[in-house]
Each structure stands twice: as C-alpha cells, then as structure tokens.
Amino acid sequence: FYYSSCVIQLPVITSSTIVRCRSCRTYINPFVSFIDQRRWKCNLCYRVNDVPEEFMYNPLTRSYGEPHKRPEVQNSTVEFIASSDYMLRPPQPAVYLFVLDVSHNAVEAGYLTIVCQSLLENLDKLPGDSRTRIGFITFDSTVQFYNLQEGLSQPQMLIVSDIDDIFLPTPDSLLVNLHESKELIKDLLNALPNMFTNTRETHSALGPALQAAFKLMSPTGGRISVFQTQLPSLGAGLLHSREDPNQRSSTKVVQHLGPATDFYKKLALDCSGQQTAVDLFLLSSQYSDLASLACMSKYSAGCIYYYPSFHRSHNPAQAEKLQKDLKRYLTRKIGFEAVMRIRCTKGLSIHTFHGNFFVRSTDLLSLANVNPDAGFAVQMSIEESLTDTSLVCFQTALLYTSSKGERRIRVHTLCLPVVSSLADVYAGADVQAVVCLLANMAVDRSVSSSLSDARDALVNAVVDSLAAYMSTASNLQQSMLIAPNSLKLFPLYILALLKQKAFRTGTSTRLDDRVYAMCQMKSQPLVHLMKMIHPNLYRIDKLIDESTIHVNDRVVPQPPLQKLSAEKLTREGAFLMDCGSIFYIWIGKNCSNNFIKDVLGYPNYASVPQKMTQLPEVDALSSERTRSFISWLRDSRPLSPVLQVIKDENPAKTDFFQHLIEDRTEAAFSYYEFLLNIQQQICK
Questions:
Q1: Are 388 and 340 in contact (CB under 8 A)?
Q2: Residues 270, 271, 275, 279: is their CA dihedral positive or negative?
Q3: Which of 450-483 are b and which e, b meaning 16 or more Cβ less than 10 Å from the residue's Cβ?
Q4: Is the dihedral of CA 654, 655, 657, 663 positive or negative?
C-alpha cells in the first residue's frame, strides 16, 4: 500500500499517557474493541489491555467514563506530543547547510543567482525557531568555507586545498545562528553569485566537500542541500563517464543503472547515523552519473531534484522550475531525526519497503529528515490463514522532531475487510496502488537483474491477474479479454509504464533521464506518480462552454478527459497535457485566432514564439477560464509545474507526443495491439 503524509484536519493530542498495547506496542486507535470501560483489546495482536485511569476522562467532552469517545479512538489519523520517554537526546534545532558547486561549469549555467535570490527571499520563512542554524560550503578543485561569526564586519572565506585529508578550518563559526548572524548571511548571499565570475576552475571535488559537510553536521544533524552541475572529477568519490550515447535507443541491454562506487551510499549511511539527510539538486548539461550520485539521498532519506540542460538564460523553463521548486523546498514543513514503523495484524508480515530511507532493523525506517512531499510503498505477505478473522489492520507511526523542537508522533491506522471470494478481492482492487507498487518493484528488478526482466514482469502481472479472473468466470467466451471493473485500466497503465522514460526501450533516452525517472518512481506519492505514468489530456479551446465548479471565489471549468492518442488532437483545437511536473499546451495549426489572441496574447498562430512559458493576463473570459483551470490543477500539488506552449515545429513536441501512449511507435505497441498481445498470452 502507499503512504503519503498529507493530512487535512489533524487532531493533536497532549496527554501524559500515550496508550499503547503492552504486547505489540500498537497505539490505541478506532479499530480496537472495548470489552468494558476498563479493558480494551488490541486489533493487531488481540491482547487485552487495561484502560489507564487518565484515559477515562475525555478532555473534549469533559466527561468521565467514556474512553471510546476520546479523540485517539475517534480518529484514524492523530498526532501525539511526545514525552521525554520518546527522546534519545534533547530535540535538535533546525540546521541547514548549503553545499554549492562553483566550478566554471556551474558559474556558466548561472544557477547561483537563482539559489541565492531564493534564499534571500525565504530566509525568514525557513522552518525553525530561535535556535535555527545555517552554513555554506562552496567547492571546485578546493573546498571553501565561510566564517559567519556574529561580530565580523564581513563574511570570511577559508580555503582548504588538501582535499585528500579534509578538515574544518574553524569548526565553531561555520554553522551559525540564523538570527544572530542574519546580516552577514545576507551579505554572503548577495556576494556569492559574482565571487567566481572569472573562474578557470573546471574540476569538481564533490566527495571531499561532502566529507566536510558530514563533519560539520555530525554534532547536531539536520539537512545538507547539495547543488552539483557535472561529474565529480577530483578526490574521494570521483566518477568517470559511463554512458555510450550510441546505446541510448538500444532495445537490448541497458547498463549502468546501478552506482559505479559505494562512496555515496557509505557517506549517506554515515549521515543517516548522525541524523543528517542529503538532498541533491543536479543541474547538468551533460552526463553526470546520477545512478551513483543519487545514493547520497536515497539512503539518507533525502530528495532528488534534476534539471537536465539547465541554463539560466538559454533554458528559461528549467530556470523557472528551479525557482518554484526552491520556494516550496525552503518553506515546506520538515521533520528531523525521525523513525517510522509499520505494524500489521498477526498473520501478515511486511517484507519490502520502497522510498528514500535506511532500514535500521527489520521494520524500523530511519528518516533523518521527513517532508510532506515524500511517498513510501510497502509490500506485505499473508503468512498465516486469515479464515478466522473478518478484518486486518495496518498502523504507521512516525516519531519526529518538528522544526520548532517538539517531539511528535504521527499515527495513521487503516482497517480493511477480509473476504472469502476471489470476485470480492478483485472488486476491492485499487488499480492505481497496484500500478505504483509494480513500478517500484520494476525499478528494483531493473537494477538487480535487467531492464528486459522488469518489462517482462510488468506484462506478466497483467496476464496473470486477468487470466485468474477469467478462469473464475467460467461462463465467459475464452476468445474475449475480460477484466473486472476495478482493473479495466490496468493494461492501459502498464502499457504507459512500459513507455515511461524509466522502462522504455528503442526510444532514445539519456541514462541520467532514465535513472531520474526511476528515482521518482521510488519516492513520489501516488497522485504525482500516476500523472507521470499516465498524464491527463484536456481540450481547452472551448472552456467557456464546459460545465464549471466554484472553488473559493473562482469559477473553474471541468473539461472531460481525452484519450492519450494523436487522433484526439484536432488541428482546430488547443490541448493541455498535465504530466505532474510540467504542463504542455499544444496549439493546432488551425486553432482559432480568437483563442490565440485572448489566451496567448498573440494575433495568430505564426506569431506565437517557440519558448513560451507563461500565459498573459488578458481581460477576456476565455483567458480567465484557462488561467483559472490551470491554477486549480496547480494548487493540488507540492511542486508547481512549469508550462510549455508547443507548436508543430517546436523541439519539445517530441516529449509531448511520447506521452500519447495509446498510439503505436516504431519501438512499442499501440494500446489495441497491447491488448491483443495480452489476450494471446492468456489463451496460450
């Protein structure tokens, strides 16, 4: 099943007694049963526990003797303020360290301006309290530190050129209190973008810079944000190019999906042990071996952002994306020094976790940082017969330190019925959860075995599940392909996965692009992952005629979803494709000039520019409706997607058309052909 940490109304409970099962440590929840006022039975291990005296009183209703009406037993998601029993040490402060590539490549790409500007704008919005600390490290062939000790007249740069034996020049003044040293921090951020303008340094000592960052963060823990623009070329963790551009569209073996060195994984595990997560922003114009670099985030519970062909002026869409991502990244909620445990009913067991974390013991995930945009998937198996039970439960507990220094426990409990007939099992299938879990399993299989093995396993999942369903419905003609209602879209979604950058073959795909898609599969929440796999396509040139809903003070049109096929794209129309992190607007050659004028702000098709990433505010109903629809789509997700307007001769057109997964390509089936293929395999 899938877990994502977004909650609408959260009951927060401050109580000196957190009631848990004495045997399996499950938190009391809505699915326990009260035998009488004084005893409750655990829904996971069935042990009978005593109700503590304090739990007899209900603070909400101010009544006594109704333990079943307490908020912990009324809500399946709750948050407890934890007592000192839940702390190994006093809660840590929020600590943020920025590690910035300043080689010639980085300076030329121009990302520093955006990062420093974004930090300046959001310094006061960084989650934290009066203890928040911040620091900066820059690196090229050497590593540069910045003394920001309160009382200095300006920031002081300290250079360490012995990268084989990295040390901290002044350990106490490199991570400083954000409030006490705020003016010096602002001075540094204003100066940084121009400090390396004329640099001739082409090398990148990323490994040594990370070793220094680890030493600096170890006493407290916190978050390291790494900005890298090329292959690391010096010192520990240096990498060589492993990509053969001639193999990009190979239909055979795709190599190098795993790391070239264990340096980054080891570093991540060291960081995780010291409650430090590493987030990677890769802004590269050429191959940078993301398969190796990603390990620094994967195993430390960090996150990965990737901006291929990044350039501040030549690639405005990517520059705007970085800006928007940073705004969210710097201001979103964050939890520190966290652990997560998932418990389930006796007879079930959990055997595989997917996401970015380190598994500390069989069922304890170590999350140095936790954020609301991360998703986790879990595989479980049925170990014992469940014939005697009508329900099973799962409980996730996340113990973390808030940015304000409070120790908290977020608990989700889920209860599902046990059914005896296969038809009921199929009726309850959640096709999106099935597809996303299979995507995670396919990523693991691609790395441990091969991409073609993973692709075969995806197809077999469809064949096996539909064959099993058809064998239960004996009255069906075997010549037809039949799926239960719940799985009607299963073959379509699997075909979409097979055509996704992570798993496709025969279509030119850069290795870093493929690896990044795999990283996202393993760490994105289900709703975002589904848009990546199967985007939503809408026709938007007739929004005035569509039915609408009212959201706050906005009128939002609701156009119907279109099939992802080129036959739906009429030359007279305009279409919006929502891929999760990017919106494409495709304009047909004969699209009406009124739409182009009112919505795009240009007199006709020919005058619409190639690189258009924003819609103007035009005082016309169709403009207002289009913008209202797009902002409504945008509001539903953490990372704000960038917009790209596409005409027939635009190079980005290839990307757009590759998402039309129902159509046939040189390398892959159409949806119709795929269904025939599935049917042939079932009837074999």
A1: no
A2: negative
A3: bbbebbeebbebbbebbeebbeeeeeeeeeebeb
A4: positive
Contact 139, 98 (CB under 8 A): no
Residue type, 473: A
pLDDT at 529: 95
Contact predicate 640/634, CB 8 Å: yes
Single-letter residue type at 36: D
**Nearest partner of 230 among 132, 152, 141, 118, judged by Cα:** 141
Q: Exposed, middle or buried, 649 (CB in 10 Å: 0-12/13-18/19+)?
A: exposed
Reported as type and span, the H/E element at residue 556 is strand 554-557
Q: How far apart are CA 157 and CA 352, in angstroms?
A: 46
Sheet strands side by side (includes 391-402): 12-13, 77-81, 407-417, 391-402, 335-344, 364-370, 358-361
d(CA 209, CA 201): 15
Q: Identify the DSSP state of 384.
A: S
Q: How far is CA 418 from CA 75, 219, 391, 575, in A?
A: 22, 48, 5, 44
Asked if 395 and 411 touch (Cβ cutoff 8 Å), the reply is yes
Give the residue ranges of the chain where pLDDT is below 70: 1-8, 474-479
CB within 8 Å of 202: residues ≥ 6 apart = 103, 104, 105, 233
Among 549, 127, 608, 483, smallest CA distance to 336 is for: 127
The whole-number pLDDT of residue 1 equals: 46
* Closest residue by Cα to residue 203 from 250, 141, 134: 141
DSSP 381-448: EE-S--TT-SEEEEEEEEEEEETTS-EEEEEEEEEEE--SSHHHHHHT--HHHHHHHHHHHHHHHHHH
Token pair for 560: 């119907």
Residues 6 or more apart whose CB falls under 8 angstroms from that of 636 comprise 527
CB of 221 closer than 8 Å to CB of 368:
yes
Rounded-to-integer distance, Cα 96 and Cα 178, Å: 10
Burial of 561 (0-12, 13-18, 19+ CB in 10 A): exposed
What's the confidence (pLDDT) of residue 636?
Answer: 76
What six digits make up the tokens of 285? 């114009």
Only one residue has tokens 């075997």, namely 478
pTM for this prediction: 0.95
At 274, the amino acid letter reads Q
Please tell me the distance from the alpha carbon of residue 228 to that of residue 243, in angstroms, as a whole number: 18
Question: By C-alpha distance, which of 531, 401, 504 is closest to 446?
Answer: 504
Determine the Cα–Cα distance for residues 491 and 676; give it in Å rounded to an integer.
Answer: 11
pLDDT in tens, 177-205: 999 999 999 999 999 999 999 999 999 99
Residue 60 amino acid letter: L
**pLDDT tens, position by position, 469-482:** 988 876 656 667 88
